[in-house]
Specification:
The protein is mainly α and 104 residues long. The protein is 64% helix and 0% strand. The chain is built from six helices and no strands. The relative contact order is 0.13.
């Protein structure tokens, strides 16, 4: 995937990953942590998942790596669904004095 960042390829990858759901979310995240997927591609791929991955987005939102955490919050916002895990992530981050704005 690294060499194919075209919109057409990303759409195809996103469609497949979205259908797979939570296991694909975990695989994308593992690849990102191992340096196999760059930040740009990781950001685009993590946007394709649906409400089945709300718990994974919430867990990611609490990741100590700010870039990954931002991806988790972006995912939760993109879902636009109520999620107990999402609310807990927001409360926990706010309780630690965290912000939700990312790099400025």
């Amino acid at each position: 995937m690294r060499a194919h960042h075209s919109a057409q390829h990303l759409q195809a990858y996103g469609d497949v990953l979205s259908r797979i759901g939570p296991p694909a979310f975990d695989a994308v995240l593992a690849a990102a942590r191992d340096g196999e997927v760059d930040g740009w591609l990781r950001g685009r791929l993590l946007r394709v998942f649906d409400e089945r991955c709300a718990g994974q987005y919430a867990a990611l939102a609490l990741d100590p790596d700010q870039w990954l955490a931002n991806g988790g919050f972006q995912g939760l916002l993109g879902l636009r669904v109520d999620s107990e895990a999402g609310v807990r992530a927001l409360v926990e981050k706010a309780g630690r004095g965290g912000d939700f704005y990312g790099a400025r």
